[in-house]
Every structure is written in structure tokens, then in C-alpha cells.
Amino acid sequence: MNTHTMKMVTIICEALAREPILRLLKQAGAHGFTLFRVEGAGDKGVRTADMEEFSNIQIQVIVPPDVAEKLLARLEKEFFSRFGIVVYESDVRVLRPHKF
Amino acid sequence: MNTHTMKMVTIICEALAREPILRLLKQAGAHGFTLFRVEGAGDKGVRTADMEEFSNIQIQVIVPPDVAEKLLARLEKEFFSRFGIVVYESDVRVLRPHKF
Amino acid sequence: MNTHTMKMVTIICEALAREPILRLLKQAGAHGFTLFRVEGAGDKGVRTADMEEFSNIQIQVIVPPDVAEKLLARLEKEFFSRFGIVVYESDVRVLRPHKF
Q: Are residues B32 and C43, on separate chains, in Cβ contact within 8 Å?
């Protein structure tokens, strides 16, 4: 199979950060995303998934390396001080790289 | 720890594609899977997780490299033109490789 | 961006194993976790996400390599014979490594 290495950027954050993050993904050039609700605990304490507005969400986006770089830089600069947020990047191999 | 590198194949698709994809996983030799509902947006527009039959699902399966290869080939040939679908592969390290 | 490679340990298990696993994560030195409900099938049969107490959960935790090693060893020793459980490890790159 002819696969291509891309970056997956995963963002785990307060549900309150949803709209500004989706806007940022679009501005940075991401063509799609996946989102689901999660429970979590970190240095801000425990968050359950029971109440929508207080729950955490996990957002995943597959992008070329240069877009990933841009995303991480803007997330760090614009979101880390304002929201409970964890961001990580990993390598994935996709078919049809022009889709991302 | 004695870990073994395997392939994780992740499939994000319309809930409608669920049964044919689970059948394909079985035929290709996968021994298990994980599945959960997600929201998403891609080049087919936005999908929320509110209505089960219109939502997207994310399916994850851990398999040996040869099974991953076979899976990707069949997904591309049999599903890409019929369903809204994203497929990617990544490396994971497992204990008890005989389980996969 | 100044990213740091860490280990993500993913645990897919019966919901019944939730509390002992969260205790283990804490004891092993993990500073946070993400958890969500999944459906799955493996060599123990199919599990749906409909009934909370019988469903499976997926737990993700990002830790330094030495903590990952300790976690895998204890999961293998203390959980594999008692619960339906799948564990895998992968590499992720994070900002702010002191958080993990």
C-alpha cells in the first residue's frame, strides 16, 4: 500500500474551549476533525463526562507536518494559559494524503 | 518488558458502514476491535453524534503488519468510493502478541 | 516547537477494572488520565456500551518512559489474569513535559 506519513494532533480540553479550537483548526488549514467526550483528571482536578458544559473533549486532527507545527505553536501561545488543555502529536500513515 | 510492535489500524466512518467493516475485519483475520461514537467534519460536511444512524464511529484494531496491509488494501478498494471514511495506521507496542 | 517524546499507555478493559486501574496509575506516578466508554470484541466475546457496568472503557495516560515501563509490568502481573484487558504503548510528542 502506498501510505504517507502525516501528523495527528490530539487536543484534550474543557468543552468550553471547543469553538475557539475548531476555529483555530480551520484557520491553520486542517480539513476535518474528530471529536468525542471524555472523562479526565489532570493537575486541574477531576472532570466527569456527566455534565456537557463541564466535561472534557478529545479532538483529533490529521495534518501535514507544517500545519501541525503551526497548530502546536498557536495552541501554546493562545490557549495554554486560558484553558485546561493537553496537546500531543504522533505519526500516522494515511492513504489519499491530498485529503488532509 | 517484552513488548512487540504491531499495527493499529483506525477507521473513522459513517455508522452505516459499521457492519460491512466489522465483517471485513473478521475476514482479514483481526481478533478483536474497539468502537466508539464520534463527531466529525471532513470534506463531506459536519456530522454530530446526536442521531445514532447519522453519526460517525471510530473503529480501532490491532493486527500484525501483514493483516494491516491486507486491511488497508481492501478498505481502499471496497469502501473508499461508497462511504465517507478515513483510515490510518500507526505503530503500537503490545504485550502478549499472540492475542492479536 | 520544542516537543518532548513521551509514552502513551492505553488500557482497554472491563468497566469493573476502572477503580483498581486508576489507583495503579496514581501509584505508578501518572499525573492525569483520559477515560471514555467503548464497545469492543476480543477473545472474551462482544461487549456493548449500553450497560455501564458491563461496558468496556479505554483509559489513556501520558507518562515518562520509566513510568510506562513500571505500569506495563504491574498491569501484566496484577491484571492480566483477573480482567479482560488489552494494553499498548505508543510514542507521542508533547509540549510542557513537566506536566506528565
A: yes
